[in-house]
Task: structure prediction
Amino acid sequence: MHKVGVISVWIGIILTVIGLFVGFPMMFMEHSLAMPVLMVVPFGFVFGFGGLVTVLMTAPDTKRTNSNLE
Result:
């Protein structure tokens, strides 16, 4: 599950960067596909945030297994 979270974070980063760096120039050139490309940005944030939460919730906890408290 940890690997799925990492992949999801990378997909979110890629979608966000593509949406921003392709969508804004298209918008200023008044291209008809500018708004659909810009709508990719929120999906990128959702993928990235979901992946971040998944990574944090499923990360292996090495400090806990090596502690002498238990």
